[in-house]
Amino acid sequence: MDEVLFIMKESLIILKVVSPQKIFFWNILGSLSSAAVSVILLFIVTRTLSSESADLYSFAYAIANLLVIVAGFQVRDFQATDIKEKYSFDAYLTTRFLTNILMILILLGYLILDSSTHENFWIIFWVSFFRVSEALSDVFQGLFQQKERLDIAGQSLFFRNIISTITFAVLLLFSKNLLLSIVFQTLTSFIVVLFFDFPKSKLFHRINISTVKLKDIYSILKDCLPLFINAFLLVSIYNQPKYALNDIFNKGLIEAGVQRDFSILFTPIFAMNLMIVFLRPMVTQLAIFKEENKISHFITYKNNLFKILWGTSVLICLGGAIAAVPILNIIYGTRLDQYQISFVILLLGGIASTFSTVCDNILTVFRKHHYLVISFLAGYLVSILTAEPLVSQHGIFGASLSFFISMIAWLSVSLIIYFMTNPYTFLRRKK
Fold first, then answer.
1. Residue 149: which H helix or E strand, with range?
2. Cα separation of 382 and 409, whole Å?
3. Relative to the CA of 85, which of 28, 169, 242, 269 has its CA 20 to 30 Å away?
4. H or E, element range at 22
5. Distances in whole angstroms, Cα of residue 370 to Cα of each of 13, 81, 373
6. For 294-307, how does the pLDDT look when each residue is reduced to its tens digit (9 = 90+)?
7. What is the Cα–Cα distance from 234 to 369, expressed in whole angstroms?
8. H or E stretch covering 191
9. By three-state DSSP, how is residue 19 classified?
């Protein structure tokens, strides 16, 4: 009887009409908070502590950005477009537990084996462990997105980001202790997952991981492996200039604060990535049209998506080129005017990466994502080949140029794959 009542309750909730305005509002608010987190955290550290501490925090965050890909394993992209529910949420959740454990083991191995990190062992550990809470929350958000309830996903992002960031800011301002602030930031983030994400998931699914089969976990990891490789390579591309700057700093070739300055210049680039989050509902809708075989709707919707992307990109590029650097100077209390050209180059690279990501998401809808390893590998190889020499010769300008060239390589190969494998393009019009 209890099971029947639960199913009836679940059905009523899912059928409940949620206004598009509410969904849009919370999706935007959650997305904005998510994009702002790294900016705000770096701002607080820069304004409160020394340039050396800001450099350390920037480097630790770059490490965490790479490791969180292991924790997420890009299951979210597959999960959100799993309209027919090939796998249960229990399977997705169990898989996420395992990938989180894997991330922690890799993190500990890296910190133990790399002697250069020993002095800052706990800072790097806790900055990275904070991202574990993010990965755990992400699988719940995938469920909400799958059920077309991005309002709940947005609320999850907003509450967790706001509460954890306020905790970090207050503690850092009063204690001036970076480690203590990161520890409590992490704990509050996990608390929000426990008391918001988990209860909300019950609206759609009663969690019972004991029913999960090992073959389902294996299949999820196998299906998502190409997406994981792609994301790992992409984050490596994004962070390769930062790693090069850190290596050159350790050699004494650049002064303290350069890593911080590059991270500050890089923050507006996340505005481009933010568009992807805004466009997530459109990607999910494309998956629905594809499953319902509504080809004309799919093509029209896809074209509208790219029109929105073009228009927004032009506005962000123009506004960023004119006003971004002066605003960053005011916000962070730095002088970045000498990096104006470098910033524009970074912005153009960010635009290229956004278009590439949209192409990749559409190909994921068609389950053609395994081809994308080629494009990400191309971008990764270019970043490896260009980062060290360009940064050594030109500093931040070289780092920006390396990032731009890598993004263009990724975009170029992605477009080739998109037009050759997508059945609804002029090159392969499906009959």
1. none
2. 7
3. 28
4. helix 20-48
5. 36, 16, 6
6. 777 777 777 777 88
7. 14
8. helix 178-192
9. coil
